[in-house]
Amino acid sequence: MTAALPSTRPPSPLLIESTIRQALAEDIGAGDITSALIVPADQNISARLVSRSPGTIAGLIAAECAFRLTDAAISFRCELPDGSTASENSLLATIEGPARAILTAERVALNFVGHLSGIATATRALVEAVKGTRAKIVDTRKTTPGLRQLEKYAVRCGGGFNHRFGLDAVLIKDNHIAMAGSITEAVRRARPGIAHTMKLEVEVDTLSQLEEALALGVDTILLDNMSPETLRRAVALAKGRAVLEASGNVSLATVRAIAESGVDYISSGAITHSAPSLDVALDF
Predict the structure, then answer these.
(1) Domain boundaries, the chain
(2) Mean of the per-residue pLDDT values for the chain?
């Protein structure tokens, strides 16, 4: 299990720019026909990016990139940085420059800020719910194709931790175990190819599987879809011999009870794949 410290450090500028270029190409195509017909080419405007609902902000770096790539003459001043808590009608950024270009980039910018802020807000709610326990909220690979780096950045903005960024870590899951025939055989096959710095994590569904994994000396055990009571029994069985991650049935209604079982991590796919977008708008 690898959980980097929460940080609002964004993905690389090159990755952000590549992602935004694709989004702009998808949205603009041959050009913004409506703005070209209505807005004079020499008209400049000042606009305000605001939150229509409260939440944790993420994605302003993507919005700035969208405006900059559309027209380098646009200035973008961030008023409330990523990772900040916004209230209703908080001013997030001020944008000035050619009106046509600002209108052209508007939708892509708002899409990213709304989506990523929704992830940060959902993450923050879980983080706040487990305060006072040892449990850390971590994400999964259940991300939007092509947006993993930005979505995991939004998780960090919400105070969560990042789990695997790809298939570059060893996590033996139920289907791997089914293919190998048992946890013991799956671990036996995996161990010779694991670098000495790499951790080995195994998913288990039952306490008997947990005992099998513990006997093998694995580093981390993912406890899948276990009740809080079963999780407490799992923590007692493990006695600190492995890092324990709880997964499945994680929501605001359940996360506190899961955390109080004593597990180290709680992973949630919902914070990236099901978080509702935060309502943000561009006002002239």
Answers:
(1) 13-127+276-283, 129-273
(2) 95
Distance separating alpha carbons of residues 147 and 271, to the nearest angstrom: 14
Amino acid of residue 258: I
Phi, psi (degrees; rounded to nearest 5) at 283: -105, 135
Contact 210, 243 (CB under 8 A): no
Evaluate whether the domain defined by 129-273 bears CATH number 3.30.360.10: no
Contact between 142 and 273 (Cβ < 8 Å): yes
Dig out the tokens for 70 from the structure.
């559309």
How many whole angstroms separate alpha carbon 156 and alpha carbon 139? 9
User: What are the residues whose beta carbons fall under 8 Å from the beta carbon of 141, sequence distance 6 or more?
Assistant: 148, 163, 164, 166
- Give the range among 33-47, 177-191, 194-208 with minimum mean pLDDT: 194-208
Does the domain at 13-127+276-283 match CATH 3.30.390.50? Answer given as no
Q: How many residues does the chain have?
A: 284
Query: Catalytic residue numbers?
Result: 107, 142, 173, 203, 224
First-to-last alpha carbon distance for the chain, in angstroms, is: 47
Residue given tokens 């929460």 in the structure block? 6
> What's the half-sphere exposure (Cβ side, CA atoms, 13 Å) at 218?
30
| Pick from 123, 121, 7, 20: nearest CA to 63 | 20
Q: Cα separations (Å) of 114 from 27, 50, 110? A: 16, 11, 6
- pTM for this prediction: 0.94
